[in-house]
Amino acid sequence: MKALTTDQYTTLIRTIKTGSGALRANPRIAAVLTAEANLGMRIGDILRLRLCDIVRDGSRYRLNITEEKTGKRRTFTVPDAVYDFFCEYCRERGISANELMFPITVRAVQKHLKAVCEVLGYDEVSTHSFRKWYATDIYEQNGHDIVLVQQLLQHSSPTVTRRYIGISDERIESAIANHVLIA
Residue 26 belongs to a domain with what CATH number? Predict the structure, then answer.
């Protein structure tokens, strides 16, 4: 699986929200994938979210979770726009703060995403591609700070994070070779 491009992300979300041809619209799955892409959480952790899990902490919203895959505790800020997105989503669907926001299975999300990707001609895209897009975008938007991304994803080392976002040794060597400027 690979990270999405920003264009692929927006096309996928738009197509899932509105449907296309024989594909029915599915705003719930679009919201799940939007949450994954904007929080960098794994799909299983997104599906366990309740609005009450996001708490006001001074001037920010905070989310404390124990990651299902790793068992690690993770605390991070939820941007206001993401919190507002969740509130609107829940309000429109009559979901209370204590209910699961996304009562759906990982398999259902994967199945719908696969169908949309087939229609759009996207290869090697999975639900995890949205987390990878988050990591890659954070990396690119923050001065290529690999340690920042490592900490956000709770990886064990920068090497793991480099592999995760697709920075190969060949790319590193090429970047070094292309940077030479001798005056």
Answer: 1.10.443.10
pLDDT band at 164 (very low <50, low <70, confident <90, very high): confident
The Cα 149–Cα 44 span in angstroms is 20
98 Cβ partners below 8 Å, 6+ apart? 50, 51, 52
**Overall domain count for the chain:** 1
Q: What is the pTM of this model?
A: 0.88
- Give the model confidence (pLDDT) of 107-149 as tens digits: 999 999 999 999 999 999 999 999 999 999 999 899 989 999 9
Domain that holds residue 95: 6-142
Q: Is residue 88 part of a domain?
A: yes
First to last CA, the chain: 42
